[in-house]
Amino acid sequence: MRQVTPLTDGWILHHPEGTGQALPASVPGCVHTDLLAAGLIPDPFLGRDETEVAWVGRRTWTYERDLPAGGSAHERTDLVFDGLDTVAEILLDGRPLGRVRNMHRSYRFDVTGLSGRLTVRFASAYDEAEAVRGAVGDRPGAYPEPYQYVRKMACSFGWDWGPTLVTAGIWRPVRLEHWSTARIARVRPLVTVADGAGVVELAVDVERTEGGAPLDVEASVGGVRARARFEGTAGTVRLRVPDVRLWWPRGYGEQPLYEVELTLFDGEGAVDSWRRRTGFRTVELDTSPDAHGTGFTLVVNGERLFARGVNWIPDDAFPSRITRDRYRRRLEQAAAAGVDLVRVWGGGIYESEDFYDACDELGLLVWQDFPFACAAYPEEQPLRGEVEAEARENVVRLMPHPSLVLWNGNNENQWGFRDWGWEPALAGDSWGEGYYLGLLPRVVAESDPTRPYTAGSPWSGSWLRHPNDPAHGTHHSWEVWNRRDYADYRLDVPRFVAEFGWQAPPAYATLRRALPGEELAADSPGVLHHQKAADGNGKLERGLARHFAVPEGDFDRWHYLTQLNQVRAVAAGIEHWRSHWPVCAGSVVWQLNDCWPVTSWSAIDGDGREKPLYHELRRLYADRLLTVRTDGDGDGDASAGRGGGRRLVVAAVNQAAEEWRTVLRLRRTAVDGRVLAEAEPRCAADARTVALVEVPAELVPVGPEEFLVADAQDPAGGEPLRALHFPAADRAIPYPRPEFEVALAPEGVTVTARTLVRDLLLQADRLDPEASADRGPVTLLPGERVTIGVRGWQTPDPKAARAALYCVEPAG
């Protein structure tokens, strides 16, 4: 059988020319993390030290260790790198084994009978990118760094939420593989369901040392075995598993996983084996035209889904630091927030098996971008061959995972070509269209025909329409954040919102750790350095000013209100779009996570702390959601006056498998707490549907002193569901001075309201950096009470709890 010798220990890293210093190197790892461990560079995540380490990405770096002899027990020994970042020459005792230039591929070198000093010499990714640009010509992009000229994680060159830390290193495992006669080189598992049975077709490629004697393969899954004979280097074995249990996304059923085992025999015994887990399910993408345009609806096991999604970026600027436990923790956070789809964004990486394994187990659907984002990508060599090689490798690598349901060609590049001035600047030069509409769909069709492919996001499906047309296919809604009020999310009903979001700073404790010694202010040097979006703070302030008086010189108030505005903005979009299912079939929030401490669109910050948005997602993505919307003419934001041309409607969104029958309690309420009118209409929403109940005219609030409260019981139990509708911006509402009582409760804090208390938020990390709360903002009516659970608070104190509570206050 094949034997594996990990090459993890014994590596050294040679410091750049002139120092003569050699450092211990961690493999997997990268140059930055080794320099950090040696104390030779400051932590680029702290203060403005990112700029102090910019030189690292522009140097040549060399890793070395001794390569042991393979011994005589096997005919062949291969040196295998699962990932090299990015441009490297591999040498043994000074003799070249090969050159590589792609972070997204693995590499294998025959070192049979060889030993000696193994050297991996990394060139600067900048040098490679500039050389390729010189050969193929300049191409436009959203950012000035040359990320489109090298097959490397694009966001390591910086993004509007990420630092510029251009890495190099052996970022995935490396090993020696010893084998004889033959080895399994590739297994392409086609997993389908037919007539209630699971079908697994394993297309197997083998590599031989010599000769062509017949080889046998035996496969097993779900108690079924099959055997086939190979005469050459490729063959297929097929299994049919009766009465298979289907794999479902979370919220729709269970996630049974089956072990698939494949063994290669040479007649005398087993010589190699391959094992993976898989799940049985069907997936389709319905892009049928209809009265509203062109749909974009995922269908799993025949069930049409509203996708409750988040965008995923690399969870660390240094991906080699992301452990299996960290992947699991982050994805568990996503699942706990009601998420059922994670989009792996195209400026990052094809994630490790640990990521997809966790998604398989948690029932999280994966939308996988190919790594192209926000730039015109040359299609000439050497890039074209690298793109095809990486695509073929990673499509096959990820095929066993039932969570993977969609391949996407790129992020925003068709949109950029049409709207961002690329087309005239290119003057006919290649820009990636041949990848997205030619090469990549061909690779997917040939290798993985069980999954749908879409050419890009956003993409309307045809150049006959604008790429970002909300009525057709996927839509990215960024005009709202960039230029408009979040209420404008309610003006459209896109078919599928694949990106939208609103910024907010990270948790207070995260900022304090990242900016040690700095007096925090919205415009302090460190806060601005950890804000990478163009005019990001300006957009935060303008978005805030539409609803609140912008606090001057009060960082704590600014911090609370900008986090609250993020909650309000995302809620405005998701509530509206979910209420329009099935016309709208998904929302994918930008973004779930961060790769360092930064002001961004994330729900979980760079230290792993859950922002208020995270807790709001738990409400917005629950199976049952209550919301209030305005139907009819007008701008969709302000409610109609009694007798006006628009209708105020309560939408009961039911994504559960059971019908939802409830009595709505509707109250037109004054801000001083008086109930002005009320009614209790019945509401019935069938499974996976939305029920609409018009608000009686006498309950429609008029003017800034009134608002609507809609309550309903969730048959699944727990707290009642509530929707609020205020017809005016907060700055115009004559709120009373908030009054509430605070008391300690077992493992938490209880707050009792004496007045209307709007959007009460406990910032638990102000109590203790390790503390966290179990909920985000909550609005209390007079006399109502809430208990906020707190974990990690070592010294509970009611005065400290009151100081960490924030809520909306009267303007002025």
What are its keywords?
812 residues, alpha+beta, 15 helices, 46 strands, 19% helix, 31% strand
Descriptive report:
By secondary structure, the chain is of the alpha+beta class. Strands 27-26-25-24-23-30-29-28 form an eight-stranded parallel sheet. A six-stranded antiparallel sheet has the order 3-2-4-9-6-7, covered by helices on one side. A four-stranded antiparallel sheet has the order 1-10-5-8, with no helix packed on it. Helix 3 (324-336) links the parallel strand 23 (307-312) and strand 24 (341-344). Helix 3 (324-336) runs parallel beside helix 4 and helix 13 packs parallel to helix 14. The longest helix is centred in the last third of the chain and has 25 residues, at 555-579. The termini are far apart. Mean pLDDT is 95; it is low at 633-643.
Please state how the strands of the largest beta sheet are arranged side by side.
Answer: 27-26-25-24-23-30-29-28
Radius of gyration: 28 Å
| Proportion in β-strands | 25-35%
Principal-axis shape: globular
Structural class: alpha+beta
For the secondary structure, the number of strands is 46
Q: Major beta sheet, specifics?
A: 8 strands, parallel
Flag low-confidence runs: 633-643
What oligomeric arrangement do these chains adopt? single chain
Mean pLDDT comes to 95
In helices, the fraction of residues equals: 10-25%
- How far do the termini sit from each other? 77 Å
Q: Helix count, per DSSP? A: 15
Short recap of the structure:
The protein has 15 helices and 46 strands. The chain is an alpha+beta fold.
Write the layout of secondary structure elements.
Blueprint: E1 3-6, E2 12-14, E3 22-24, H1 31-37, E4 61-67, E5 76-81, E6 87-92, E7 95-101, E8 107-110, E9 116-122, H2 125-136, E10 174-179, E11 182-194, E12 197-208, E13 215-221, E14 224-230, E15 234-241, E16 258-265, E17 270-278, E18 283-286, E19 289-290, E20 293-294, E21 297-300, E22 303-304, E23 307-312, H3 324-336, E24 341-344, H4 353-362, E25 365-369, H5 383-398, E26 404-408, H6 413-419, H7 422-426, H8 433-447, E27 453-454, E28 474-477, H9 479-483, E29 496-500, H10 508-514, H11 525-529, H12 536-545, H13 555-579, E30 586-589, H14 612-620, E31 624-632, E32 646-654, E33 660-663, E34 665-670, E35 675-679, E36 682-685, E37 689-694, E38 706-712, E39 721-725, E40 740-745, E41 748-753, E42 757-762, E43 772-773, E44 778-780, E45 785-791, H15 798-803, E46 805-806
Parallel strand pairs: 23-24, 23-30, 24-25, 25-26, 26-27, 28-29, 29-30
Antiparallel strand pairs: 1-10, 2-3, 2-4, 4-9, 5-8, 5-10, 6-7, 6-9, 11-12, 12-15, 13-14, 13-16, 16-17, 18-21, 19-20, 21-22, 31-32, 32-37, 33-36, 34-35, 34-38, 38-39, 40-41, 41-45, 42-44, 42-46, 43-45
